[in-house]
Each structure stands twice: as C-alpha cells, then as structure tokens.
Amino acid sequence: MPDYGHDLLFSANIVPYAQDPGTVVALAQLAERAGLDLVTFQDHPYQPALLDTWTLLGYVAAATETIRLAGNVHPLPLRPPAMLAQAAASLDLLSGGRFELGLGTGGYWDAIAAMGAPRLTPGDAVAALEEGIQIIRAAWDTDAPGGIHFHGVHHRVEGTPRGPRPAHDIGIWLGAYKPRMLRLTGRLADGWLPSLPHLRTTAKIAEGNAVIDEAAAEAGRAPGDIRRLLNLGEELPPAQLAELALEHGISVFTLMAGDPPQIQRFAAETAPAVRELVAAARRTARTATMEGSPGGRAPRAAQPSASPQTPPEAEPSLGFTPTPDDGVRLSDVRVWDESTRPTAPRPDSARRYTPREQANGRHLIDVHDHLRAELAQLRDLIGQVAAGTLDADAARSHINTMTMRQNNWTLGAYCESYCRLLTMHHSAEDAAVFPHLRRVEPALAPVLDRLKEEHQAIHKILERIDRALVAFVGDPAGRLGELRAVVDLLTDSLLSHLSYEERELVEPLARHGI
Q1: Helical packing angle, 179-188 and 122-140, nearest 10°
Q2: Are 231 and 256 in contact (CB under 8 A)?
Q3: What is the average pLDDT across 445-470?
Q4: Distance CA 360, CA 256 (A)
Q5: Do 451 and 433 contact (CB within 8 A), yes or no?
C-alpha cells in the first residue's frame, strides 16, 4: 500500500492506572521531554481501576507544554456527541491546539449497558457513530448560521448553539476494523487508528487501507486525507516501522509504554532512525519521478500507440482536463487494438457545471492519479533491485520468509497489494459505477462494454505478475527480467486504459454523479 506522504509522529500510550496517578502524569511529562509527539490514554469509564480519561487529559494538558494529546479511543455511547464536541474544543483551546479526538463505537456492551447507556447492535453502533461525527463537526463549525438541528435515529439535537471553535482543526481518528467502520473512516474521518495486535498481520493493514481508500474516493476525497495511525503491541525495529510507513502509509506509531527507559529509547533511537529511512526513500522516489522514469529505468524511445490519442482540450466549465495518453509504450506486446475503442457522444459545449458536478468529474481523475502514483512506486522498487540499490539476495531472503498473501514489507508484498487495490477499483466500477451510467445514459453502453473488457484484460496481466513474482521468489537475479517485462506491459495497458476512461467518462460522471 502507499506512502501517503504525511509527516511521521511517534507516541506513547500510557495506561491510566488509578492506583498510581502521579506516575501516569510523570510518564506523560517524560514522553514530552524525550521528544515524542503525542501521548494517548485508553478510555474505559466502566473500569474503576483506571482514571477517568477526560479528567486525566485536562490534567496532563496543564502539566505539559508541547506534546499532543488524545484518547485511544473514546466510546461514543458513553460520551454524548454534543457534550463531547464542547469538551474537545475546550481542551483544544486550553492546551493551545494540542488535542486530537479518537472515537470508537464502544464494543464492551455489557459494561456500557451497566453504566446506563443503551445496548446497540454492531450495525446500530456504527450508524450512531456516524451521526455523532456529524453533530461534532456541526458544533465546531461556528461560521454556519443558527444552532444545530439534527434528527437522527440515535442522536437528536434541537437548536443547541454552535461552539466553542477549537484552536485548530481537530482530527477525528476512528478505531475501526470491520468493513462498515472502515468505509465510515474513508467517508468522514481524518484518521484510522487500529491496533497491530488486533489486526495480527500487516496484510490486514493493506486490506483496511484498500477499503478506506475506495470509500474516500467514492466520497470525493483523496485517500491521503485520512492519516493512518497504528498502536504497536511491542517495540519493533526501525526498518520494520519504516516499511510500514512506506508500504502501508502508517505515519503515527504509538507504543504501549509504562517503562521510562522504553519511552526514552523509542524517542531517542527508534524515531530518528525511522525518520531517516523514510526520508531517504522519499528522496529516491522524488528523484525517480523528476527524471521521468518510473522505477529509475530509462524508457525506450516512445513508440506510438496504435491509435494515438488526440490531447483533450480543457472544458472551461468543467475546470480540468482528462489525463492524455502520451503514446509512450515500454513493451512490444499489445493486449488490445486501441483503434477499435468506441467513443461517447460529445457533450454540449454550452453546458455549464456546478461545483458539485465539477467535483463528480474530478473524482475519477483523483482515483486514477492515486493508481498512477502507486504504479510509479512499484516500478521504483523493481528499479532498485535492478540497479543494485536493493540487493537481490537481501530481497530474496525477505521474500522467502514471507507468505505471499500476508507479508510485511517487500517487493512481493507491495506488488500483491497494488494488484488487490487495482482489482477492487475495477470491481467497484463494474458493480456500481458502470451500471449506473448505463441506466442514466444508454448511449454510453458501447464505451462501458469496452472498458469492462479492458478490465478483464488487465486482470489477466495481474495474474501474470503473480506468476512472475512466484518465479522471482525462487530466483530474484535470474527472473527479474521476466517480472520487469510484465510490469512494463501493465504500465502500457493500465495508463492507456485510464486515459481512455477519463476521456470518455469524466463528463458523463459530472452530469450524472457516481
């Protein structure tokens, strides 16, 4: 999965034991002195062995100056959203903009019900959380007119005044694991905050990221709008944390810490090492991009496509231009005849589009840009192996110790994750977007049929990549050429396909929505 480009933050999660409150506060102060960015506390109000987290957060905010603060995470059934919004904004103001809001559905329903909150089904708990987020954001939106009126199934607000306004844009981070919560995260949240022991494998991070990214794109958001955070169950080496950042987009690492030397080591040794590794990898990726050669490989002289695409003219009222096909081909193989592609009816040149319609059209390009960036990163990894920057023997030793469908961080895992992401994107189009357009504009049927055929052809290339990866595991040096050749073919086919799809569909999507 991708590096979303966020700055890296390192955090301590401190258990708020009630029998030793002074130590809890002292550990938070130590985390600040050591140079950590964030301190978090679990929030279980039904557990008398723990301090009340909201009271503790206020106390720690007064006892510190720079470190950020968050609950990890607050159960919404016991924190009514209108009150939670005011409490969060107040704490943010009092701390000078250092508070972030972690939320969850609850989970421990016997304990929650024992405190007087209604017992909810899992589906109702997610729906209640979605309503709560809307109320919280409305309370912070002090520029909107009037009070808050919200008539939900689980929460109602009858004209309560807005405010106070937080000192900064508080991030809403969700503890999410199942698909419905992950989709909610993609639609409405600012961060995803799972725990690695609960996920068990990094493959689950990739799967969660894919669901969040797809939901974000469907909501007109960029996947990078959502920070990816991770609670660590144990200390991990810097190289592994760096790979989690680069290949799974994790940018906030939170260590469960109750030992002062452990906090100091995490801040003084682990955090700088991870930042250095990630910064170096990002510089390499930027250099490869600026040189115009994804993967660091100089492409052959451009070979014209079978039917060179005329560069599209910007539609003034749409406000953007579909991405053109530059005609460059890296492979001699062609999986389809581009000259036989049907075209959609041309739009009314006099039509003007609303901002919402413009966003509908732009959405497809944003999703495709994400896929293009991921493809460039995949080619960069292969280029590093070919150039010797990433030693082939080292790559083989990593890959040989992994399960191809479950590994942490190597070229094979990245390829597999990218294939899954692309497959999910095409599946969403085939199952929802294309049928919608076919219903509302039957004249698009030939184009949609062709796009679906190209999806199937691209999936066959993905299967070839999978086979090439298996061969690469056994013989990295000898079979690298085979892998590069099939990735070249994917590059040619996918970039051509994405450009064709944008050329034919961004305008209909602007009119009809997604």
Answers
A1: 10
A2: yes
A3: 86
A4: 42
A5: no
